[in-house]
Specification:
Elements lengths: L1 H5 L6 E5 L5 E6 L3 H15 L9 E5 L2 E5 L4 E2 H11 L5 H30 L5 E2 L2 H16 L5 H17 L4 E2 L8 E3 L11 H14 L7 H4 L2 E3 L7 E3 L3 H7 L24 H25 L1 H8 L6 H12 L3 H5 L1 H15 L8 H6 L14
Length: 372
């Protein structure tokens, strides 16, 4: 299950220098259908807002060549700004401005994708909420000995999926987390600088920042990546949650409900609850799965991130924003509490099960944005 559902490195990324000295990123896919799905979303955005996505340079049966963007993930910059906050309070204001820029461009992308969805005859499925959640919880129940009632959980996740299928305002399932955005500052590209130099660049940007003057982090283009899941549909809150309820963009408190929906639709607390369940388990579930099954991969990909953050946040959300979590999904909430409690005890695993079984090439694991 981990190999087919959760292992992110199964999709190849290659850095290509072609005969015209144009650097490109070759992104691999399992099938031509996946190629066509991503290509459709990229073209939909590029035709209207070309600065928001990389240019497509070539297309093959199982790959797309994109113009290579030198820079670093927005996620990396946000984490470095979080570090800088400990010594310079101005870093928090700079981080807040960057998050707002990301929200503005992500909302525009969501608007374009929804418009295309309504105009395009392409077949789309709904995100398989029940399968995704029960697969994760079954894994955690087995590894952490949580004693979950999986029959009840299957019923609740089925209700969550039925709700998603019934929503009158579905949106393409994207992932607007800061890890899927590149800040196009060549000086921050790891092919040109070290992690220490990235940190020094960000701290210098903080030192030069003010509310009146734009610095390099205020001016740099933000380029969005990864539209491979847009052939599935979910609730409109998913993208705002992905960006704003994320450890790297956390400003110390849950965003207001109004910040968690970018479309002009009436607020709906049940819709927000389902969106929060899906997204917190997608983000937290992958990190915890790597920690339990593939320790080497976890250290390479998520070592600077918390395993418990998203589960703890979901519990807090149930108290602050989503009362339906306790009333409609008590078994899911109880399972989340059990995960939080178990993680608080500390995790020690004896072996890397995935490495022993599959012998993955660890050189293909990237914590920053691309191979370089």
């Amino acid at each position: 299950m981990f190999h087919t559902e959760l292992w992110k490195e199964q999709r190849s990324l290659e850095l290509i220098d072609d005969e015209d000295n144009v650097r490109r990123l070759r992104k691999g896919f399992k099938s031509r259908d996946e190629v066509d799905a991503e290509l459709h979303s990229l073209n939909c955005i590029y035709e209207r807002e070309p600065e928001l996505v990389p240019e497509v340079l070539d297309v093959a049966e199982t790959s797309i060549d994109l113009r290579y963007v030198e820079g670093t993930r927005v996620h990396t910059v946000l984490r470095l700004l979080q570090e800088a906050e400990q010594v310079d309070v101005r870093a928090r204001g700079l981080r807040a401005r960057l998050i707002e820029r990301c929200a503005t461009s992500s909302a525009r992308i969501q608007e374009l994708l929804v418009k295309d969805m309504r105009e395009s005859p392409r077949a789309r499925a709904y995100y398989p909420v029940q399968k995704k959640l029960t697969t994760l919880l079954d894994l955690f129940d087995s590894c952490l000995q949580l004693g979950l009632d999986m029959d009840v959980i299957e019923a609740e996740t089925g209700s969550a999926e039925a709700y998603v299928r019934s929503t009158p305002c579905p949106v393409p399932f994207r992932d607007a987390a800061a890890k899927n955005m590149v800040m196009a500052i060549p000086e921050l590209w790891l092919g040109r600088c070290s992690v220490t130099e990235q940190r020094e660049f960000v701290r210098e940007a903080v030192a030069q920042s003010s509310s009146e003057t734009e610095g390099p982090l205020d001016r740099a283009p933000i380029v969005h990546l990864d539209f491979s899941s847009c052939s599935e549909l979910t609730v409109p809150e998913d993208d705002p949650i992905s960006l704003l309820v994320h450890e790297s963009s956390w400003l110390g408190a849950l965003p207001a409900c109004a910040k968690l929906c970018w479309l002009p639709v009436a607020p709906d607390s049940m819709r927000l609850t389902v969106g929060m369940i899906v997204r917190m388990y997608r983000l937290g579930g992958r990190r915890l799965s790597y920690r339990l099954i593939h320790q080497d991969g976890y250290r390479l990909r998520y070592a600077d991130e918390s395993t418990a953050f998203y589960f703890t946040t979901l519990v807090d959300t149930g108290q602050a924003l989503c009362s339906e979590l306790a009333t409609h999904f008590p078994a899911l909430l109880s399972a989340t509490h059990a995960i939080v409690d178990r993680l608080a005890e500390g995790l020690e695993t004896e072996r890397d099960w995935f490495r022993d079984r599959y012998q993955p090439q660890l050189k293909a694991y990237y914590r920053d944005v691309f191979p370089y």
